[in-house]
């Protein structure tokens, strides 16, 4: 059975994306782009270290027991993996490991695909947002913030190393 569109939820997510993008473009990116590459990436990865929160989708009571367990498991384990990769990225960047930048690429690609997959599964695996309980704020607010920050990580990763200190 296909999921019916939940217009208020979709508008909430769209509003969070728009606001996240505007705040990032207006306040975060102008400052962040002047930072050294490793410092900017470390800060952005730190934001993702909290993605262990997605594990709560596997906790009955936090979400309804009617939430599709395939969806809940994918969200939970995907987010935990992203959080672990974010922490590994922070360590690698802090200690200037030679593999720091490839680890950040891995974290950022995994994290982005994981979030997009969660939205796709939510739309196709009958994950009614009304069943998310306290977890409603994760896809409605936190995921848009995370996706916008993933875009900023890609922007930092792709800028020329020689342009690191250039505003």
Structure commentary:
The structure is a single chain. By secondary structure, the chain is an all-alpha fold. It has one domain. It is 66% helix and 0% strand. It contains five helices and no strands. The protein starts with 6 loop residues before the first helix and ends in a 9-residue tail after the last helix. The chain crosses the membrane at residues 6-29, 41-64, 70-93, 100-122, 134-157. Keywords: Membrane, Transmembrane, Transmembrane helix.
Brief summary:
66% of the residues lie in helices and 0% in strands. The chain has 167 residues and is mainly α.
Count of all domains: 1
- The total beta strand count reads 0
> How far apart are the termini?
51 Å
Radius of gyration over alpha carbons? 17 Å
What would you call the structural class?
A: mainly alpha
Largest sheet: none
User: Which percent bin holds the helix content?
Assistant: 55-70%
- Give the oligomer, counting copies of the same chain as homo and different chains as hetero: single chain
What shape does the CA trace take?
globular
Report mean pLDDT, rounded to a whole number. Answer: 92
Stretches where pLDDT is under 50 for at least 5 consecutive residues are: none
What is the beta-strand fraction?
under 5%
Transmembrane segments: 6-29, 41-64, 70-93, 100-122, 134-157
Keywords: Membrane, Transmembrane, Transmembrane helix
